[in-house]
Amino acid sequence: MSENQILHVGDNHGHLNPLKGMGIENFAKKFKASGGWLYVIVNLLSWNFNIKIGSPKDYRKLYDKTIKTAENLRRYGLTVPVIIGPHPAETVRKIQEGMELSEVAEFMIKAYEIAGEYVKLGRAQGLGEAGRPHWPVPERIMETCTEIMFKAIELSAELDVPLHLHLDVGRKPLELAAQVARKTEARKVVAHHVKGELAYYAAQLGLVPSVPAKRNEILAAKKAWNSMVIESDFLDDPRRPGAVVSPWSIGKTFKRLINAGLMTYTQARRILVHNLADLYVVKPPFMD
Q: Among residues 223, 230, 186, 239, which one has the least CA distance to residue 209?
């Protein structure tokens, strides 16, 4: 990679916590200094903000906080698509609190319909994270989470916007999601945090692989480079600094791959710029 080539970096999935995290200004400056141009912000969990959820409408508080954070990030020149909707952990917690399975499914589907209203107004650009727990839960809970995921895929198809899926590891969850995506003609169902070795399989199924921005995962996903995006899944939690990839390390990782002859500049640019621009229908500010 020549010195005059700039590697612009897009991160497909991350979080920010303006109450307890590193601070919006600090984050924006560090990410931009590393080549960052796009950061897809996904809402955190309701309890990260001490929001009490008594009805689906209460998720508006979580959505509004996420949207406000995105607005503040954009002031630093970043492109910031917003993804909103309850995480499967929210479903699990409601069941643990005693809510009936049929009631919790209706509850979370309504919360996604409310998120869809934000999308229609242009306040958000996609939905998520819907999906299935990646930790052990009783089968009845997994089935309820899957039902909610199917409805979220249908809504994604209606709105024609990205849906980030939180899935358990393996081929079966990918296949379940892909079946509904094909049936509903949902074109932008994102397999969030998919392992590199499964990225090409996800792409073959018609899903958009979003691979963790780690060297080994990127290389394992080589056959999917034309269609995949990458993500940090940054938590913005000072108590867990090593839990995920830092967004500002992404550029370094890709430059090392390029300089080692393991990837071309053109291939990196497709993953970090073009595929993201297509997915979120945005025009990078540095391109004519």
A: 230
∠ CA 247-30-240, rounded to 5°:
50
pLDDT tens figures, 99-154: 999 899 999 999 999 999 999 999 999 999 999 999 999 999 999 999 999 999 99
- The 3 state secondary structure assigned to 146-197 is HHHHHHHHHHHHHHCCCEEEECCCCHHHHHHHHHHHHHHCCCCEEEECCCHH
Q: 261 — alpha (psi -120 to 50), left (phi > 0) or beta? A: left
Q: What is the rounded CA–CA span in Å between residue 74 and residue 36?
A: 12
Tens digit of each residue's pLDDT (9 = 90 or more) over 232-242 = 999 998 887 66
**Domain 9-280, what fold?**
TIM Barrel (3.20.20)
Distance (Å, rounded) from C-alpha 166 to C-alpha 18?
Answer: 23
- Quote the DSSP letter at residue 264: -
The secondary structure element, H or E, covering residue 68 is: helix 59-74
Rounded alpha-carbon distances, angstroms, from residue 125 to 120, 122, 160, 227, 258: 9, 7, 10, 20, 32
